Amino acid sequence: xxxxxxxxxxxxxxxxxxxxxxxxxxxxxxxxxxxxxxxxxxxxxxxxxxxxxxxxxxxxxxxxxxxxxxxxxxxxxxxxxxxxxxxxxxxxxxxxxxxxxxxxxxxxxxxxxxxxxxxxxxxxxxxxxxxxxxxxxxxxxxxxxxxxxxxxxxxxxxxxxxxxxxxxxxxxxxxxxxxxxxxxxxxxxxxxxxxxxxxxxxxxxxxxxxxxxxxxxxxxxxxxxxxxxxxxxxxxxxxxxxxxxxxxxxxxxxxxxxxxxxxxxxxxxxxxxxxxxxxxxxxxxxxxxxxxxxxxxxxxxxxxxxxxxxxxxxxxxxxxxxxxxxxxxxxxxxxxxxxxxxxxxxxxxxxxxxxxxxxxxxxxxxxxxxxxxxxxxxxxxxxxxxxxxxxxxxxxxxxxxxxxxxxxxxxxxxxxxxxxxxxxxxxxxxxxxxxxxxxxxxxxxxxxxxxxxxxxxxxxxxxxxxxxxxx
Length: 471
Known about the structure:
The chain contains 23 helices and 5 strands.
């Protein structure tokens, strides 16, 4: 009777958590402006598949998300409608994590993992962004779940699910390559725990091989060649990030090569550690008793609370978005310590309350660059002959999502040629210089030039954006 009651309790908890997590992801969905990458995704989706395969529209990502967005945009191109394409896979990930957790850890831990996922500020944030990361997380979960079922016996359905999720992930985002080591880590742990078979192992490896074969056409495409050219260049995105933000790797033209070799070494070490740690854990009563240890629980609560703060802090999004693939595994680890049982309530209740609060802060109070309000401000104060100038030039993409080329405009490179600047001042009345604070020239050369050669009328601040009016 007690088991029946517990099963009913878990069933209703899962229903409530799924509804709450979905509602949280829908809350204020269209309230924030599109930022650069969201507006650019819509622009790229309009270019067509041929352009994407040629690598002429977007150099950093495979085509699947843009192809999906192209079809989805037929429902509407407002912020809320386009972001629904991320809400749906994020919400679907909640029951999938339960199935994975139940298979690996049992019902109680799986229910806790669902609760942590439903209220996770990281996952809620990227569920409200018209980018591929929520879908990437879903495909990663499908692959892990399929591998969990395949590891000890072959089943056609799960083999196809693993192959499709891996192939879809690779065509969605280059970071999806890390789904493969996640699957291999699960397989290695299963062998150490004596829960794997040769038939299951062969099934998993053939699914991986098949997905890589299906990915071969993209590897041979001009788009992939362009990506590799960017990766080998002196000014690729990751190299610029490491050198300008972290002052790391001054000779960074080979940074991607270093990352690849470092990643392969880390994967190999992780596979070996996973095997030997799993074997040691199975033999250790001390480890099995860790969830009952008060000191361990206190450290876990402090660590999780610190992670919640970091996920809300409006910095480090380049790193945060890459964590989505691994975050469900992290949540399963915490869920093992906080199973959905009365004795775990004193630890789990405050954690879930903090998670919900952090997610609400992310949804309601953490802004994105406010292109919408900035455009409204300029439109309301424009005069005949005004010229909009954006630095850097690619910021025309989010500006024009809201402005639709209604105002004459141009883009400036950092430290633009003086003749170009003189032509702007001579050929126009007033100049609206829009600076994106996170991407602007650290030396402010264009601002300094305008300050010397034109009269600064006003400076208006929006989140991450500065509007300087000259005449």
